[in-house]
């Protein structure tokens, strides 16, 4: 499928940039990637061409908190939509708007932009939204326990500027997206931070992890000039699973490096493609499927709470064992509470990993409840 990605605000633009960089070689799943921000210096740090970066509004217009920023965002929505015309929005099968919740620029702009996209195009508009880490809004937030350090407190670190309104801003923006976004994919910065790590130090790694998950799911169907998947997942399949009613969606992912060439050299002294035994292909697929479902998710939740699920298994074609993939689908089906399951494969002839991309849709998450409680305490 073809996805158009639009990053808004500091986090949104960095994530959009990371998604562009995660595009698998040889095959494109992105029509255009745009970055919208009030901060020119941040925009220039992206790898995106100038035509696809756009500074809007005065930075000071976003100085008066989220409510005023939301009005400013509404004033700029039509202008931002016009900038998208520089690309090919009509070729997109879906839009993905990336934003960091907790701030003012992205959080103030994205609800109006998403509403404008929904009014203008028939395609789904998904929102990828980071959730603020505890230490941003709670100076007493402790480090994750059990890592040898006892209960040492991690106050908002030197590089992590406190944002006392972060939880409130995040919850308000989520409320404004409800009924507007086709689906919301949160990425919880709290769970992706390592103990003692500053947000600024974690963000490139986090953005790469998020981008890898987006590429695994949305680039699933195969590469434009490579072998076609046996079961292609297209835009309407994704819409069926992810939904169109602002469902909360979380992404899982796991990969295993596999040996694709033989250590014996063939004629011409070039490494030859190695024959893959069914047993090892099955084992690799089983491992990544299990870890993709049970490993770290973009938003932690019990898979049992998911109403629907999608599994994409990718890698070098010789490793994509059909039976193991079918078994993986059954594993996902029994892991989730609901019954809507789809599965597909993603051949990557030059890939060196077998991977599983997992979508759990319409989930319940304690983390969102925690943020709502933190927002309620601070108002
Ligand atoms: N995962 C991730 N999260 C980020 C990144 N940058 C910022 N964040 C998170 O996103 C939130 C919003 O930050 P920004 O995107 O910089 O804020 P903004 O929308 O530009 O708005 P203001 O800075 O308030 O004008 C922060 O509180 C962090 O929780 C990033 O690169 N990656």
Describe this structure in words.
This protein has two domains: 217 residues, Rossmann fold; 112 residues, 60s Ribosomal Protein L30, Chain: A, CATH 3.30.1330. The strands form two sheets. The protein has a ten-stranded mixed beta sheet, with helices on both faces. A two-stranded antiparallel sheet has the order 8-9. The longest helix is centred in the first third of the chain and has 20 residues. α4 runs parallel beside α6 and α6 packs across α12. The chain contains twelve helices and twelve strands. About 4% of the residues have low confidence. It is an alpha/beta fold. Guanosine-5'-triphosphate binds next to α1, α4 and α8.
Query: Count of helices?
Result: 12
Question: What's the shape?
Answer: globular
CATH class categorisation of the largest domain: Alpha Beta
Low-confidence stretches: 144-157
Written as H for each helix and E for each strand, in order along the chain, the element string is EHEHEHEHEHHEHHHEEEHEHEEH
Strand portion: 15-25%
Q: What would you report as the Rg, rounded to the nearest angstrom?
A: 21 Å
Quantity of strands, as a count = 12
Provide the structure class. alpha/beta
CATH superfamily of the largest domain: Tubulin/FtsZ, GTPase domain
Strand order of the largest sheet: 3-2-1-4-5-6-7-12-10-11
Residue share in helix = 25-40%
Task: Give a short account of the largest sheet.
Answer: 10 strands, mixed
Tell me what the CATH architecture of the largest domain is. 3-Layer(aba) Sandwich
Subcellular location: Cytoplasm
Domain Tubulin-like CetZ C-terminal: 196-375
GO cellular component, one term: cytoplasm
Domain Tubulin/FtsZ GTPase: 5-136
């Amino acid at each position: 499928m073809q996805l158009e990605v639009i990053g808004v605000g500091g986090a949104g633009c960095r994530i959009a940039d990371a998604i562009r960089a995660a595009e698998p070689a040889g095959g494109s799943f992105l029509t255009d990637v745009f970055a919208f921000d009030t901060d020119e210096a941040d925009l220039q740090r992206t790898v995106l061409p100038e035509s696809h970066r756009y500074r809007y509004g005065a930075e000071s217009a976003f100085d008066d908190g989220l409510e005023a920023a939301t009005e400013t965002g509404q004033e700029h929505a039509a202008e931002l939509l016009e900038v998208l015309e520089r690309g090919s929005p009509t070729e997109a099968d879906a839009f993905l708007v990336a934003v960091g919740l907790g701030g003012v620029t992205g959080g103030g702009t994205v609800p109006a932009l998403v509403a404008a996209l929904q009014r203008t195009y028939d395609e789904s508009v998904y929102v990828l939204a980071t959730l603020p880490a505890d230490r941003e809004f709670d100076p007493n937030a402790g480090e994750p326990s059990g890592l040898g350090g006892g209960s040492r407190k991690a106050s908002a670190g030197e590089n992590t500027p406190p944002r006392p309104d972060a939880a409130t801003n995040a919850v308000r923006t989520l409320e404004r997206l409800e009924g507007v976004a086709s689906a919301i994919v949160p990425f919880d910065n709290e769970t992706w931070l390592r103990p003692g790590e500053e947000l600024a130090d974690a963000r490139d790694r986090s953005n790469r992890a998020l981008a890898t998950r987006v590429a695994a799911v949305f680039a699933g169907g195969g590469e434009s000039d490579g072998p076609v998947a046996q079961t292609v997942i297209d835009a309407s399949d994704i819409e069926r699973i992810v939904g169109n009613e602002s469902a909360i969606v979380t992404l899982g992912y796991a990969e295993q490096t596999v040996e694709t060439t033989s250590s014996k050299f063939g004629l011409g002294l070039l490494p030859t493609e190695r024959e893959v035994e069914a047993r090892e292909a099955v084992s690799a697929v089983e491992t990544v499927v299990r870890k993709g479902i049970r490993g770290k998710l973009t938003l932690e939740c019990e898979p049992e709470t998911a109403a629907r699920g999608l599994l994409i298994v990718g890698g070098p074609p010789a490793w994509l064992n059909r039976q193991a993939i079918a078994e993986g689908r059954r594993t996902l089906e029994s892991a989730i509470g609901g019954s809507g399951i789809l599965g597909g494969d993603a051949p990557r002839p030059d890939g060196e990993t077998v991977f599983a991309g997992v979508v759990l849709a319409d989930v319940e998450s304690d983390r969102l409840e925690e943020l709502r409680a933190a927002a309620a305490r601070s108002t």
